[in-house]
Every structure is written in C-alpha cells, then in structure tokens.
Amino acid sequence: MLKKIKRLMIMCMWPTYVQSGAHLHAISVMFKSFFFQRVLRINSHVPWPVHPTSQLKGVENIKRGNRTPGLGLNCYIDGRNGIIFGDNVLVGPKVSIISMNHDLNERNRYIEDDPIRIGDDSWLATGCIILSGVTLGKNTVVAAGSVVTKSFPSGNQVIAGNPAKVIKVLE
User: Fold this and answer.
1) Long-range contacts: 166-169, Cβ < 8 Å, 24+?
2) What is the rounded CA–CA span in Å between residue 133 and residue 149?
3) Over 80: is that where the pLDDT of 87 sits?
4) What one-character-per-residue DSSP string does 43-61 give?
5) What is the pLDDT of residue 104?
6) Cis peptide before 52 (omega within 30 of 0)
7) Are residues 152 and 96 in the same domain?
8) Which residues are known catalytic residues?
C-alpha cells in the first residue's frame, strides 16, 4: 500500500519538480514540499516547490530561472513589482527580496518601481535583504546579512554590508 502511495505521489508531482531543476538526491525535500503545498495547502499558490516556512507574494510577477527561489528556510519574497531571477541563482535561508515599497508621504500607497533583477550564477547568502529596483549582475555574491539598496550591474563581485558595497572583485 505504501509503495502505491509513493508511486502515485511521484506521478502527480514529477512534472513540477523536473521543471524546477530538482535533483534526485533531493527526493525527501520533494515529498515534504509536495505534502505541505498540495495536501496541507501551505504555499499552494506557488507553482514550484517552496519551504513551508517561506512566504511568497506576487508569484505571478516572479520570473525564475532553473532554480526554485523560496526553497530555503524562512525566505520572504515579495514579487508584486516584479522579480527576475537568472539561471543558477542560489537563495539561502532567511533571505528577503522585497520589490514593493511605500510612499514616504502617503504610507498607504505603494510606489511602482523597476523589477528586481538577479543575474545568472549569483548567490544570495543567509539573511541578506534585496530592496526594490535593484539589479545584480552575473556571478554576484551577496554576503550574509547584507542590505542591498542600490544596483550592482557589473557582476563578478562580492558585495557586503549595510548598505551593501563591493568588497571583492571575482576573477
């Protein structure tokens, strides 16, 4: 009976997880995500696997590459103004990507801004915060705990701090 249930779950969720770039070694993550998203309906509005403790808003405005943003523990991804992820973007736990901001004079009103763009082969380390309108170039590493308030489009760099600045150029 248990084998039949496993086989049924794999058949139901296999197309979603193959498209998400999940590897076979992550099968336990696949089952957990399936259970929380499709059975318990936690983050059920997200068409790719996400961690049950992560929160995603404006999923329809998020264009992801071949990875699954939000799979890390306690991520907050607000895509209401748009977020564009490149391929092979690693998003660590507790990362916040916030594309929507409030007007300073009229706090009940949101400001429309350019979408956040994160280049190919980038890495957003634990606890970093990416704010609205930011563009990160290809192969950018955002250090843990950094707050990115402006764009770094050149790529091949490590940025860190609050506010973030380039601390190393990569070869």
Assistant:
1) 167/143
2) 8
3) yes
4) TTT-SS---TT-EEE-GGG
5) 87
6) no
7) yes
8) 102
Give the model confidence (pLDDT) of 1-44 as tens digits.
Answer: 666 666 655 555 555 555 445 555 466 777 777 788 888 888 89
- This prediction has a pTM of 0.82
- Please report the DSSP string for 80-145 in residue order: TT-EEE-TT-EE-TT-EEE--EE-SSSTTSEEP-PPEEE-TT-EE-TT-EE-TT-EE-TTEEEPTT
109 and 58 assigned to the same domain: yes
Domain that holds residue 80: 53-169
Q: Are 94 and 112 in contact (CB under 8 A)?
A: no
Tokens of 38: 């499709």
Give the CA radius of gyration of the chain: 17
Tell me the pLDDT tens digit for each residue of 110-162. 888 899 999 999 999 999 999 999 999 999 999 999 999 999 999 999 999 99
Any idea which residue has 């995500």 for tokens? 33
165 and 99 assigned to the same domain? yes
